[in-house]
Design goal:
24% helix; 29 strands; single chain; 624 residues; alpha/beta; 20% strand
């Protein structure tokens, strides 16, 4: 039976808090300044921990080890609590914590050197719906196919433990514990190890702006984890800059490094950084980025941030007053592309027209709003981002939010014509930004992606009502009839509907082939595959058509012609970007209208009488 030892363990800890294997037992450490007494309870036996002057309780329990389950008792209270820094919650966030020994796993990725964002192709996936089984093991079996497709970075939606049987993961409450829903901690390690063996990097979406409403026990240990000095859209703001914020900052910064250190992850995607409030001299996002780099050592890492106001400071280096992240999600590209595809300009799409000029500007400059007035929000949006390299803008036609914000979670290919969708896919995958695909997009998945979350009945009702209110910003979804048709987030059938049918890779072979071939061109073509800073210019050719020119050395340029309307015939072409390099002619390198992709073929694009740019198509030309 485990027995307590009064003296603290002297072994070097990986983390300042949590349960860690030490000589002949386990060392426990937790920050609980509210408590005067704190016990760790194992097999119904309480072991008193010793408090220091900073509110940390620590102690060594001999005989405990990997697999030991434990809870904390504060000031003799009968309610036993999970460890705030638990590495595993086998029975969910309300259950006992389990000691994990990260050193037991044998890695095979010693030669892995990581990846940088530049040149990468990101694939966002939700482990629970990526495969029918919804486990790490099942997802790992599909990694080889993702590598064959041409993906280089897998971005995991959040996996920190959350309550219920299913959910997106953004209501995580045990930030150090990968959810039991997908397997054990070592199953996640096997997933990452397998990815590295295939040349794939893995980054994790983490939520540091709030915690979920169910299973969050942090305030039982310290009120100082949260603050009322700010207003957060999703719950209590985290206290990164107020009284006693030091241990709070340490907790979250340590979590960022933990995923890199103990799971060999290659970086993070930071959710909604605009809701991470911090007036400290060093913003906590900067500290998080720094910790990720330190934890990785010589390995290259990727930190991508979501920032709705489009604050370019997030990706500027610290020497220039920035936070040092590598990339930002580019909603502007998505919004204008979606309007171009569907013609719908409701709710937050009202400030976009989907015109050729907008698409050209997004390709050249990343964000469309860099300080102009934004009518939807009735204020200015964005900041100057002209200095940022194109790779720092993560572009997408679909992501988890945007697909789910359609009433029935329908994919973009279901909302537009096949030709227009293929053309926009070419723009995404050959464009200058860092492209991101959302799971199933590569084969035009028929499965929707809806909002789903399993909660207690009372909380589930509130979530259902909140989701309906959010979608009511779209006039077409605001009527009582439409509201009544919205899928219930708490219905298990909603979750099940979102699981991919991977057999569609074969049944939707034309769409899958298009994605794979475009990624091959992006990877192998000496111009599309080489992306120096600001090498692209563009021009409008017609009401629905434009050209992007990719300049290269020795006149080895490329053109990408995109026409989202009817055939465009140019008998006059007073646009210098269309002129071939001196002594060269244009030849077709790629066309989305090939029969192998479901198209109808194209004739000559440039001929003696001018240009004929096929409708609802994209054509890449090379100087020959």
């Amino acid at each position: 039976m485990p027995t307590a030892m009064s003296q603290p363990a002297t072994a070097r800890r990986r983390l300042a808090v949590g349960a860690e294997i030490a000589h002949d037992g386990v060392e426990f450490r937790v920050w609980a300044p509210k408590a005067t007494r704190l016990d760790v309870v194992i097999d119904e036996r309480a072991h008193a921990l010793t408090r220091d002057a900073h509110g940390y309780f620590a102690g060594h329990v001999a005989g405990a080890g990997a697999g030991t389950r434990y809870r904390y008792r504060i000031d003799g209270d009968e309610t036993l609590l999970p460890d705030p820094a638990s590495r595993f919650q086998p029975d969910g966030p309300h259950g006992a914590s389990e000691v994990v020994d990260p050193a037991r796993f044998v890695w095979s990725d010693a030669e892995w050197r990581g990846r940088s964002l530049a040149g990468s192709v990101i694939y966002e996936l939700h482990v629970g719906t990526f495969t029918p089984a919804g486990t790490w093991a099942a997802a790992a079996r599909e990694l080889e196919e993702l590598a064959r497709l041409g993906v280089s970075v897998v971005e995991l939606m959040p996996v920190a433990e959350f309550p219920g049987r299913f959910g997106w993961g953004y209501d995580g409450v045990s930030l150090f514990a990968p959810t039991r829903l997908y397997g054990a901690p070592d199953d996640l390690r096997r997933f990452v190890d397998r990815a590295h063996g295939l040349g794939l990097a893995v980054i994790l979406d983490v939520v540091y702006n709030h915690l979920g409403p169910d299973g969050n026990y942090l305030k039982r240990f310290a009120d100082d984890y949260f603050t009322d000095r700010y207003v957060n859209e999703w719950g209590e703001p985290v206290n990164f800059d107020g009284d006693n914020a030091g241990p709070v900052r340490d907790f979250f910064v340590a979590n960022a490094g933990y995923w890199i250190d103990e799971y060999h992850l290659d970086g993070l995607r930071l959710d909604a950084t605009q809701q991470i409030f911090d007036a400290s001299r060093e913003h906590v996002v900067s500290a998080i980025v720094r910790r990720v780099r330190e934890a990785a050592g010589p390995r290259a890492t990727i930190v991508v941030a979501e920032n709705e106001p489009q604050d370019a400071r997030v990706v500027r280096p610290s020497a220039r007053g920035g936070y040092g992240a590598d990339g930002l999600w580019n909603d502007d590209f998505h919004h204008t592309a979606r309007v171009a595809a569907t013609g719908r300009r409701d709710a937050y799409y009202v400030d976009y027209k989907g015109t050729p000029q907008e698409l050209v500007s997004a390709a050249k400059w990343g964000f469309l709003y860099q300080g102009q007035r934004y009518a939807w929000q009735k204020k200015r949006r964005g900041s100057a981002a002209y200095d940022l390299p194109p790779a720092s803008f993560v572009t997408y036609l679909q992501n988890h939010d945007q697909v789910a914000n359609c009433a029935q979670g329908s994919r973009l290919h279901e909302q537009t014509s096949p030709g227009r969708y293929r053309a926009l896919t070419a723009l995404l995958l050959l464009g200058p930004g860092t492209p991101m695909l959302f799971q199933g997009q590569e084969f035009a998945a028929s499965s929707p992606f809806l909002f789903f979350a399993d909660h207690t009945p009372e909380l589930a009702a509130a979530v259902r009502q909140g989701r309906a209110r959010f979608l009511a910003q779209f006039p077409g979804l605001a009527t009582p009839e439409q509201q009544a048709c919205l899928p219930d987030p708490g219905d298990p059938a909603t979750f099940e509907r979102c699981k991919l049918d991977l057999g569609e890779r074969t049944r939707h072979a034309e769409a899958y082939r298009l994605t794979m071939d475009l990624l091959r061109v992006r990877r192998e073509d000496r111009v599309f595959g080489s992306r120096p800073h600001r090498h692209v210019d563009g021009a409008v050719l017609g009401p629905h058509a434009f050209v992007l020119r990719f300049f290269a050395e020795r006149g080895d340029d490329r053109l990408l012609l995109v026409n989202l309307g009817a055939d465009l015939v140019l008998t006059e072409a007073p646009e210098p970007l269309l002129a071939p390099p001196e002594g060269r002619q244009w030849r077709v390198l790629f066309s989305t209208e090939e029969a192998r992709y479901g198209g109808c073929g194209i004739g000559p694009v440039e001929h003696d009488e001018g240009w004929r740019i096929p409708g609802e198509a994209a054509v890449a030309l090379a100087a020959g």
